[in-house]
Hints:
Structural class: alpha/beta
Strand content: 15-25%
Radius of gyration: 26 Å
Amino acid sequence: MRIIELNEENRKSVQDSILHRSPTQFGPQEAVVREIIEQVQERGDAAVLEYTAKFDKAELTPETMEVTKAEIEAAYEEVDPSLVDVIRKALVNIRDFHTKQKQNSWITTQENGIILGQKVTPMQRVGVYVPGGKAAYPSSVLMNVVPAKTAGVDEVIMTTPCSSEGKVNPAVLVAANEAGADHIFRVGGAQAVAAMAFGTETIPKTDKIVGPGNIFVALAKKAVYGNVSIDSIAGPSEILILADETANPRYVAADLLSQAEHDEMASSCLITTSRKLAEEVSREVEAFTEVLSRKEIIRKSLDNFGNILVAESEEDAIEAANLFASEHLEIIMKDSFEVMTRIRNAGAIFIGEYSSEPLGDYFAGPNHILPTSGTARFFSPLSVDDFVKKSSIIHYSREALKAVHKDIEQFAKCEQLTAHANSIAVRFENDPE
């Protein structure tokens, strides 16, 4: 990995390279996605089936789009029982964590007849997109379906690409069944997003679409936003590690590579105050890469978006970390918890040398669907909150409204909204002055 000094120019260069991987930067693909969405809107199942045949080489019919119960039962026979056990253990941790996020409706009352409150209502039907291109991700199934079901969503629709034979990865099916997905459709890509956004003869329209995917999936979610809600427009994965001279270079190198293997666009960055650590990590990265199964992807990722930045001070390192607003942030320093308190922007924060990023991907419980491409400045991880709506509750008695009606009328007249003012005044027009 290249080692460079952290200064204003280099920091901005690295930050720009990370941001330019965002799905908002891929104009040419948007035209393709727009056409797919329009076709699905106009022709429903027929368009979905055509694009599935074109892109996934799978010949489906409306009757075979949905995965059957028999296929789900067969999937359990194909998956190693020990993996099923691991999925169930992870499911407990994920469900326990998200249960703590639940909010309840509330009401407050006052003696003069004022009742105010907030009603929390789960969404009725949500769509979950699960990637299935270069790898299968049963972990993403758990991270999307569990918070939706924990929130109380009535119906979870899941779509995921299939093989040319129409087969869905059995581990994905097991995870979906364990998490509680109600319907699973073997379609992927922008056509699956469009189907969940607008509905077809077979795939029902949803209220919200969540889950990561490739550039076409991300752009499709961006395009349908407004017709349905979405969680975010996810970009390629990224990791930033803050480390000092106390960090183990082998651990740091291994963690950087855990993200580089995702795809060629993944970003792996180390910011350290130790030149010695930087050089040791670079050597360990080279050694590890040689023996890892996805080394070609790793090399391309590191060549394009792999950086080791050497900072003059801890303050400079933390400032850069906050500017990068990374999806995953690991802190491996003398006082990692104190440093954590100075972090403003990060999707997930991993503290200490035994809290590596894959712990969060698979098992700890917090959600691994995280803001990318600097959006951790204003977005949060996927949570139960993403699957509920909040309605305000307002009740005033006549006595309570009479006490403030002139104030409201004055406010409305100030904005030249006389109908607003009249809506209040008419209730007291026969009252003596």
